[in-house]
Hints:
This protein has 147 residues and is mainly β. The chain has helices at 31-37, 132-142, and strands spanning 3-8, 15-20, 24-28, 42-48, 52-54, 59-64, 67-71, 80-82, 88-92, 103-108. The protein has a five-stranded mixed beta sheet. A three-stranded antiparallel beta sheet has the order 1-2-5, with no helix packed on it. A two-stranded antiparallel sheet has the order 6-7. The mean pLDDT is 96.
Amino acid sequence: MVMEMAGGCACGRIRYRATIENDDAYLCHCRMCQRATGGVSVAFKGVRKADVSWQAEPDWYVSSPIARRPYCRDCGTSLGFAFPDSDHMDLTIGSFDDPSRFRPAHHFGAESLHRAWLNTEGLPEYRTEDHKPVVDRWMTALGKLPD
C-alpha cells in the first residue's frame, strides 16, 4: 500500500516525509555502514529521491568517493545513504516516526556480516520501564519516560 510517512532525527531539527510503496527493507552489513553508524548493520528503506521532501535540509557527509550520507549535525542521527548519481536513496528505518511497517527482505554487504548478531531469538529481553536506574534518570530529567 502506497502511503506517505514521516521521520527525522533525534533532536527534531531535521524532518522528512517520504512516499513509501511497500514494506520491503534491507539490512546493510558493509564496513562503510558499520563505521558510519557504529552498528554491526543498519536497516534501510530504499526510496526515490523525488519521493522524499525535507522540511529542513539535512547535513551531508561524503562518506566515500562514490557516496554521501544525510545526517543531523546537532544530534548525530544517521538518516540515510545515497549515491549522488542515482535517482534512489536509502532512509534509515530507525529514523521513521513509525518503523513498524517495514520488514527485512534481504541482506547487503554480506562479506562483513556478523552472524552472531542476526538471530538473537531466545536471548533475555529487558524493558526500559523495568530498569529502575534508567527510569529514575528520566523521571528526574522529565518527570516521565520518553515516548
